[in-house]
Amino acid sequence: MFRKLDVGCGHDPKGDINVDLFLNKSERYDDTSLNVKTIPNFIRAGACHLPFKDKCFVIVICFHVLEHVDNP
């Protein structure tokens, strides 16, 4: 079991596993590219389709993401 998942981690990851969907500055809201080589345990995925089984994490954090989801 993992401890913490950061969904939409951006440039400041806080999880044991860190997830973000948009990598290129043309896709991102902060207008900068995301360098995944500097993000530990990075997985590219969308918040609505996470590739994990249920109850894999003790906590999930998701800052400044839901306002960008089409149908939260």
Question: What would you say this structure looks like, in words?
Answer:
With 72 residues, the protein is mainly β. 0% of the residues lie in helices and 25% in strands. It has a 4-stranded parallel sheet, with no helix packed on it. It is globular, with a radius of gyration of 12 Å. The model has no long low-confidence stretch (mean pLDDT 90).
Strand content: 25-35%
Q: Helical segment tally?
A: 0
One letter per element, helices H and strands E, the order comes to EEEE
Cα Rg: 12 Å
Q: What would the average pLDDT be, to the nearest integer?
A: 90
Low-confidence segments: none
Shape label: globular
Q: Give the distance, in angstroms, between the N- and C-terminal Cα atoms.
A: 26 Å
Task: List the strand order in the largest sheet.
Answer: 3-2-1-4
The chain-level structural class is mainly beta
Roughly what percent helix? under 10%
Count of strand segments = 4
- How many separate domains? 1
Question: Which sheet architecture does the biggest sheet show?
Answer: 4 strands, parallel
